[in-house]
Specification:
Organism: Paenibacillus selenitireducens
Helix content: 40-55%
Number of domains: 2
Structural class: alpha+beta
Distance between the termini: 30 Å
InterPro entries: AraC-bd (IPR003313), Homeodomain-like_sf (IPR009057), HTH-like (IPR037923), HTH_AraC (IPR018060), HTH_AraC-typ_CS (IPR018062)
CATH topology of the largest domain: Jelly Rolls
Number of strands: 12
CATH class of the largest domain: Mainly Beta
GO molecular function: DNA-binding transcription factor activity; sequence-specific DNA binding
Radius of gyration: 25 Å
Strand content: 15-25%
Protein name: HTH araC/xylS-type domain-containing protein
Largest sheet: 6 strands, antiparallel
CATH superfamily of the largest domain: Regulatory protein AraC
Keywords: DNA-binding, Transcription, Transcription regulation
Length: 287
């Protein structure tokens, strides 16, 4: 994986890790025969885990007759319908309503997911829904953490078992701009960069560029460039026979600073790191 592709992955991992969750309600229900609604748009997300019975759900034009063992996601802000099926046993389902936002954007505007997944870990999913139900009204200081943990685990199980997930980058224009900057940096890693130069690439004022870059990457431009250089240096130490001086030049760090910066980053001097990597199969180096 090249640096830019890894940036995409790491960026979205970090970006989505900032999701703000708010559980409205969680329960287990055996729905009545008149359970239905048509063409409405909720402001919250819904998760259904079907334990028994049959019914249908629809998001937009996609209609699905659900079966036991399926976890269904109905995203906020989408046109939805649901209901029972004549002469079929009705749903018994775990369910919850919740909001999930990254900044001011709905999580499932950023992620395009399937309507449902087939669950492999039935016992674990039931356990997490039971935790939601148990702790949603608990009074202990840890209750909110436990609710968040259970809800994150359920969402993670849905994502992990989804055959396809698309990241909607058009919903994050800052990502597109900073991605262009990252490509420039990785293509000229041995060069000296100025904030003004990088800001011009995306036609931003320097101060605003710094703020935007940090929002996207979690680091200032200088911090990000230095980390990129040190990661490259570690690769060169591990996979080439280049000398320390040549590696420092290749990654654009003055030799007088290179050893100190590398040790701050890895905990080892460049020569000790190389030795550790060469001998890593014989056992860990003691620090």
């Amino acid at each position: 994986m090249n640096v830019h592709n890894r940036f995409n992955s790491v960026y979205w991992q970090q970006h989505l890790a900032n999701v703000q969750l708010d559980l409205s309600i969680a329960a287990y229900t055996k729905v009545p025969e008149d359970w239905h609604d048509t063409n409405y748009i909720p402001e919250f997300n819904k998760l259904y885990y079907i334990v028994e019975g049959e019914g249908f759900v629809q998001v937009g034009e996609e209609r699905h007759v659900s079966q036991p063992g399926q976890l269904i996601l109905l995203p906020a802000g989408t046109l939805q319908s649901y209901g029972t099926i004549p002469d079929a046993p009705t749903f018994g389902k775990y369910w919850c309503h919740f909001s999930a936002k990254v900044g001011n954007q709905h999580l499932f505007d950023l992620l395009r997911t399937p309507l449902f997944v087939n669950v492999d870990e039935d016992d674990e999913l039931r356990k997490q829904f039971d935790r939601l139900i148990r702790f949603q009204y608990a009074e202990g200081l840890s209750a909110a953490f436990r609710v968040r943990s259970a809800l994150l685990e359920i969402i993670s199980m849905f994502l992990d078992q989804s055959p396809r997930i698309q990241v909607n980058t058009s919903k994050s224009p800052s990502f597109e701009k900073m991605s262009r900057v990252i490509r420039h940096i990785e293509d000229h890693l041995s060069s000296t960069f100025s904030i003004e130069e990088l800001a011009r690439i995306v036609h931003l004022q320097p101060n605003y560029f710094i703020q935007t870059f940090k929002q996207v990457t979690g680091q200032s431009p200088i911090q990000y460039i230095n980390r990129l250089r040190l990661e490259k240096a570690a690769q060169l130490l591990n996979f080439t026979n280049l000398g320390i001086t040549e590696i420092a030049e290749t990654v654009g760090i003055e030799l007088s600073y290179f050893s100190r910066m590398f040790k701050e980053y890895t905990g080892y001097s460049p020569s000790a790191y190389r030795e550790y990597m060469l001998n890593s199969q014989t056992g860990p180096m003691q620090k």
